[in-house]
Amino acid sequence: MPWTPAVGLKALAYFDPPPEGSKAKPKLVGHFPCAVFATISADGRTHAHRIYVAAEGAGKAELGTGPDGRPREAKKSAKVSDGARTSGYSAIWGDPSRAPQLLLAEGIETATALASTFVVEIALLEIAVAAGISATGLEAFQPYPATQKITICADRDEADKANGSPGSRRGEKAARKFGLLNHERLKVEIALPGKTGETVDWLDVFRAEGPETVRAGVQAAALFVATTFELEELAGDRSRAGNLQKIAEVYPLPTMDILHLQYAYTASDKIKVHKWNGWRIDDDGARVPDLTPVASPFGIAARLRYADQQDAYGLCAEWRSTNPPATILKI
Q: What is the pLDDT of residues 252-309, one digit of tens each?
């Protein structure tokens, strides 16, 4: 069991979210057995992750098809009402504030296999294990001050899908993104299970071949080395992030009770105000923010509409034509 809190419930309500833009309440699907895990970030913030399970805990719950025509997801993060990001929060085995090495996995089930394999090292505070909950959470994981080395035990997603499309390699992509963001400050290794062309995780290896095979595979992890393309892409991402920060400082967005707004890039590479609609699954199977562009950055004219501020505001604008006869318009 993880060192962070966990609880098993004989029955917990499962809801479908209301339609996009609807004021309707979530619709109850039913009550199902559920395991709930506390998740924590390196700075101490906490959240919760739910895994609905079948009777007697024999696998994930079969929840039928949702309103969108897709199978309902048995794994659900606790509700976040203000749009705050909880990716990077993890269930933990051991004490990452003291252990110099950390094994980072995607799901809780896979992390459990790793914790079972390295149970002695965890007890001795030599190793800690963290479950990032998803590939997106793995990317966003924040190392602890004591962390000197992270071995990313990612899933291998290389087998062709049923429709003939190639495997997403989502786990490997997430591992390399984490490595790209963190390799300058600590040692990062990547350990992929199985063989080339397979879709397999470390829990599959644990169940099929035992803990010693898992141990050998993790200890044979390859050191992360960034490619030239990855470094150039990172520089571009940091430039875009810097531009977003500057816009937010010049044109700060109002804080609202229900609607959550943030600045983001549009598909045409322009910065606009976006409305946060929740989460969606992208083409790589990653859970990403669902954002809708709604306006250009709010300028001075919008700030003048703040009726609850005590200070008075005024705006004087002058426009002059460039062709004679000169025309001057003052407001």
A: 887 776 677 888 888 877 888 888 777 676 655 556 778 888 888 766 545 554 444 5
* Opening angle at CA 36, ends 30 and 38, nearest 5: 145
Structure tokens given for 252: 């700060």
Counted residue by residue, the chain has a size of 331
Question: Structure tokens of 73?
Answer: 């997801």
| 234 domain residue, yes or no | no
Domain final residue, candidates 35, 52, 82: 82
Would you say residue 2 has pLDDT above 90? yes
Enumerate the H helices of the chain as residue ranges. 108-117, 119-123, 135-140, 170-182, 202-209, 211-219, 228-250, 300-303
- State the DSSP string of 36-105: EEEEE-TTS-EEEEEEEB-GGG-SB----B-TTSSBPPSEEEPP-SS----TT-BEEES-TTT-SEEEEE
298-311 pLDDT per residue, tens: 665 455 544 445 55
Residue 165 and residue 77 in contact, taking contact as beta carbons nearer than 8 Å: no
d(CA 9, CA 32): 8
Token pair 């008075």: residue: 312
Question: Residue 10: which domain range?
Answer: 1-82
First to last CA, the chain: 68
Instruction: Name the pTM for this structure.
Output: 0.72
Give, in degrees to the nearest 5, the angle at Cα 81 between 246 and 154: 75
Query: What are the C-alpha distances in Å from 43 to residues 37, 141, 188, 220?
Result: 18, 11, 21, 31
Q: And the tokens for 314?
A: 């005024």
- 78 and 127 in a single domain? The answer is no
Q: Is 136 within 8 Å of 171 (Cβ atoms)? A: no
The CA distance from 190 to 203, in Å, is 16
Residues 5 and 74 in one domain: yes
C-alpha angle 240/242/245, rounded to 5°?
115
